[in-house]
Amino acid sequence: MMKNKAICGNCKKSLFPSIKTRSGLLENIDFTSSCLIEYINKEKEIKSLTTPGNAPFFTLLNVTSYIAIVYFFFNFHGKKYEIVTYFIITIFFNFVVLFIIDKTYKHLREKKLLKIHAKDIKRKREELNIVANSLHLWSKIPQTYWNLNILNKFYSDINNHRADTLKECVNLLEAEKQLNDRIIEIKKVNQKLDNINKELKHIRYNQYFD
């Protein structure tokens, strides 16, 4: 329903009341939140289609295990430090092999996935653009505050009569941010004072027993 509102461009006034009213502002916040959620989900869907994953673990493990066994079989004779050296070299060699195989697998797999899901990816990107355009077109919330936590706070503040306008919501948010910053600074100062007091106690203790 909200998505259809965003796409419809011929009935803006009837679909979105003025944000000067509490109900209109709540509706616009709800719309913005819905669009953001949809945008995030679309991005995840696109990423899931193009994420190759890691190379098959057991295949890599078997290959590197055989390499390690063969290497140690021919190089096991010698002193302890030589065996340790061989062991470290083998681990490093196996790591390099794993890294190269994994990167190559991911690159080839990603290209294959892009080819297989080309139509789906194109369609989902078009849907993503529609959602983004809807946000820019219809949302009255400044882009700075396009964050689900912030939008939920705005909605809650209006519902709980802590604010009646968008400006009041923003001012309340910024005031709380400043207050939290001050609290953090006070905690840091208190921590420094505690450390100084501990150092002074330690100095007095040492002076007393010297």
Task: Describe this protein's structure.
This protein starts with a helix and ends with a helix. It has 8 helices and no strands. The chain is flat and about 80 Å long. The protein has 2 domains: 146 residues, no CATH class; 46 residues. Helix 3 runs antiparallel to helix 7. It is mostly helical and 210 residues long.
Major sheet attributes: none
Q: Give the SSE string.
A: HHHHHHHH
Number of domains: 2
The share of residues in extended strands comes to under 5%
Structural class: mainly alpha
Mean pLDDT metric: 79
First-to-last CA distance: 80 Å
* Number of helical elements: 8
Gyration radius, in Å: 30 Å
- Share of residues in helices: over 70%
The low-confidence parts are 1-14
Summary, kept brief:
By secondary structure, the chain is an all-alpha fold. It is built from eight helices and no strands. It starts with a helix and ends with a helix.
What are the SSEs and their pairings?
Layout lengths: L1 H6 L4 H4 L6 H29 L6 H19 L4 H37 L1 H21 L9 H12 L6 H44 L1
